[in-house]
């Protein structure tokens, strides 16, 4: 019998490990302005080339170039810059608060601020986002969501609107179109598609926006959601945030090596774009394009946002153990805040001095919010909701077995 070579599997490896320089050539970048902008009523298959290329607007000199450059007033862009800066400052302070044991856990979106803040500007009141824990920018971009309220949730204190029942960061702000964050990854996708379908069944005009990370696309829920979204042309935007890492697992392990995450959408009959997620203008333009499609009954859009997780996965993670510590500095798509600032300076509507002033104002605003939130208690001083409150709000009428347990708790702890 013919002797055959033994079979073997391919196990993708990151292109950089601690002590090495990462080879980012795997990213397949396109120059700014090069990717086509198809009409919003395009067929899904006609987006195939864009799912393998990269929609970019801001070039290296900070100029807005090409067919995707959005129409937007400079004042609106300054608002976007402010939202990104506010998000970064908020994150930095809450990271410190966790190290000071005032909160138990935190997750930053350092380096990914454009993805959520620019998207927020493309949605309308009543639309519903189904975010993961890294889209706090959706909330911080809004003037009607108080930082104090978010911080009270993080501190699980007496003013925590969720009464300490959710992990810090897992916000729920219905009035701001921010669906309760679920720690069970990828559930966001099926929930959002279902919500969008319900909106259409009711004859409403609101759309849904779903969020998932590169790693979580390996979950079955991701694929199920794509099938339903395609079949019923659900009014939904399907955001895949490819920040290169899923904790210590490189995005290639989730299937980003020989293809793109955007290409998954095309394969499922969904119009798909691969977009520079660190380019505020590109995020805004692609989000508007997808929102217009959803609102016009033209079907779902999948968008892969290429970005980089600049910080640790969470306060429980140490990325220097699995990737080069200076990776972010070498990431070819740069820093979204620096890039939008460069654009505004090039437009002559912004300056270093204005930037510094805004930075200081925002730092003061975040600090003041923190002081106020801390006045309602932190993890350190135990101003948490009473333990007995865990029995409330579950059932309309408390069932007898819970009444027994509540009585037992009160007898044992004197509450
Ligand atoms: C279904 C499920 N599996 C595993 C986890 C544990 N977990 C939490 S975050 C995470 C990594 C997710 O990475 P990615 O989807 O790329 O999102 P990112 O954190 O990079 O934004 C994992 C495995 C979880 N929360 N839910
Ligand atoms: Mg990731």
* Whole-angstrom Rg: 23 Å
Largest sheet: 5 strands, parallel
Taking the alpha carbons of the first and last residues, their distance comes to 79 Å
Residue fraction in strands: 5-15%
Structural class: alpha/beta
Strand tally:
7
Shape: globular
Bin the helical content.
25-40%
Sketch the topology as an H/E string, one letter per element: HHHEHHHEHEEEHEHEHHHH
Low-pLDDT parts are none
Bound ligand species: thiamine diphosphate, magnesium ion
The mean pLDDT is: 96
**Total of helices:** 13
Biggest β-sheet: strands ordered side by side in the sheet: 1-2-3-7-6
Short description:
With 415 residues, the protein is α/β, with parallel strands linked by helices.
Would you give an account of this structure?
With 415 residues, the chain is an alpha/beta fold. Helix content is 37%, strand content 8%. The protein has 13 helices and 7 strands. The protein has helices at residues 48-51, 74-99, 113-120, 136-140, 147-154, 187-201, 220-232, 261-267, 280-295, 327-330, 336-346, 352-375, 400-413, and strands at 128-130, 208-213, 236-242, 245-246, 249-250, 271-276, 301-306. The strands form 2 sheets. The protein has a 5-stranded parallel sheet with strand order 1-2-3-7-6, with helices on both faces. Strands 4-5 form a two-stranded antiparallel sheet. Strand 6, helix 9 (280-295) and strand 7 form a beta-alpha-beta unit. It binds thiamine diphosphate (TPP) and magnesium ion.
